[in-house]
Amino acid sequence: MTTLHLPPLNPIVAEVTAAIAERSKDLRARFMRRADRYKSDEPRRKKLSCANYAHVVAASTETDKLQQALDAVPNIGVVTSYNDMLSAHQPYHDYPEKIRTFARKVGATTQVAGGVPAMCDGVTQGRPGMELSLFSRDVIAMSTAISLSHDAFDAALMLGICDKIVPGLVIGALSFAHLPIIFVPSGPMASGLPNPEKAKIRTMYALGQVGRDKLLEAEMASYHAAGTCTFYGTANSNQMLMEMMGLHVPGAAFVSPGTGLRDALTAAAVERAAKTAENSRDPKRLADVLDVRAIVNGVIGLLATGGSTNHALHLPAMARAAGYILTLEDMDKLSGVVPLLARIYPNGAGDVNHFHAAGGIGFVIRELLSAGLLHGDVTTIWGEGMMDYSREPYLNDGVLTWRDPPETSLDETILRGVASPFSPEGGLREVKGNLGRAVSKVSAVKLEHQVVEGPCVVFDDQDDFLAAFKAQQLPPGDFICVVRFQGPKANGMPELHSLTPGLSSFLDAGRKVALVSDGRMSGASGKVASAIHLTPEAVEGGPIAKLRTGDLLRVDCEKGTMDYLGDATEFAQRANALLPPNAYDGVDGVGRELFAHMRRSVGPADAGGAVFW
């Protein structure tokens, strides 16, 4: 085992960490008072009345009832997001029984505390159901709280992987931060059709060069088995974050389902939950794990790996639940000093399995620690310090063991060290100007495509853009596509992933295009320069509501600017565009009417787009 001597922390990382802590001190103090108020040294079920307790154990086996009656035996609650619709979550089908078996071996009991909804953004892309997607995160948080509200558990395991599900579980779990809580993944599916080939066929379909039969064949060859989709979207970015924040068993993120190593990591999570339960000798409360250093580590991991733009929403929301105020400016400052160490599709050709084989998350963490770019002195669910997460798990004669990752990347087209990064800066950037402020993912955008100046074409719906694209009604030359009325208050901020193939085709033809929107793209957003999550949004009278087709705009991802280039006085005097007359049809039906109260109360995108604060 290599001993890593940690250098001093990078001064910008230290500065940002201190700034977050200072602006958040009152909020964090209130959070910690709540966590302290609910802590307990004895089993939580002992605080229940006899009738309450009888309900807790009524359906348990006689053996488990005897175990649960003992003060020293931890009872572990399981919150699951299992369903058959998400390939990543289908393996959770038999986890409750596996976890129960593992728990009995270490003298603990387990109960499924509850389930949370888990929608698949891959299914709802471009469909009405996508308008429920962002709000589902906060529903999941509330469902997690309801699941744990029985107050009968000494620790908890969170079973979740995909887009809004992990952030929702984190937010909900933080209302029970007096408990030790561990996140348990299930791993990625095997690699399918190479990603560049998939992207090529999508673009060909958008241009009408192949039919639906070829597109369907390619998509089914890509998404073909149980496990997480293998591109580096929000789901796999979530798993990276859980490692960076110390909430996983070390190295658990990208081990495939249905393997002995996967089961061993799950068993280790159960054993760790039992050993660190609230009534154990060494409790590890979530409140003590998720402090400001863990939050900053999560941001740094996102930047170093070119993770999903969706986390410009989720990280501020998760931080707020832990009592911290995280801003886009914080992320931007960190991006200036954190190098880009990974290019995983859509940022590169390889997928997460190739990334894992090249050295994976342990390699990234070791590199960041060695450069003073990560807080190493943190409390994790596994112990003290991030060094545990700089190693990779393997089975040695059936026994779970950890070893150092390779000294150098095994594939430098996918993964690199800090001495030779893909870029000296991270993958996300704040973009601001007279149109407001937004976020841009630059890790997948070539340098020659990061600055776009030209007339804009304004749409109030992505379907209008797609119709204009198919009818070849978009202007010649360089242009900027504006899609507005897509923010949280307007319609729940659906992902606009359907724009990507059409806009990408213009780049392939040698033209420059960019996207400006108060909506969001996706962890799968690719090579087009995009200023998204624009705040204030159009429905709240943001400047984007004043734009007209033909206005000259400039988006400069290098400098982090985004501006209307016309007459400022005339622009200020313009009337704001209003939601189209049929807009309310867009938030009615397919369950969307049930979320009207969330659209009314949701906060701005730059604060996480949450309904709680």
Mind explaining what this structure looks like?
With 613 residues, this protein is α/β, with parallel strands linked by helices. The chain folds into three domains: 11-190 and 225-403, no CATH class; 191-224, no CATH class; 428-607, IlvD/EDD C-terminal domain-like (Glucose Oxidase, domain 1), CATH 3.50.30.80. The protein is built from 23 helices and 14 strands. It has helices spanning 11-23, 25-38, 50-57, 62-68, 95-105, 121-124, 133-148, 165-173, 195-206, 212-222, 234-244, 260-275, 286-289, 292-305, 311-321, 328-335, 352-358, 360-370, 462-470, 488-491, 499-508, 568-573, 596-601; strands at 75-80, 109-115, 155-159, 181-184, 392-396, 399-403, 428-433, 436-441, 451-459, 479-483, 513-517, 529-535, 552-556, 561-564. The strands form three sheets. The protein has an eight-stranded mixed β-sheet with strand order 7-8-12-11-10-9-13-14. Strand 5 (392-396) and strand 6 form a beta hairpin. Helix 8 (165-173) packs parallel to helix 15 and helix 11 (234-244) crosses helix 14 (292-305). The longest helix is centred in the first third of the chain and has 16 residues, at 133-148. It is globular, with a radius of gyration of 24 Å. The model has no long low-confidence stretch (mean pLDDT 92).
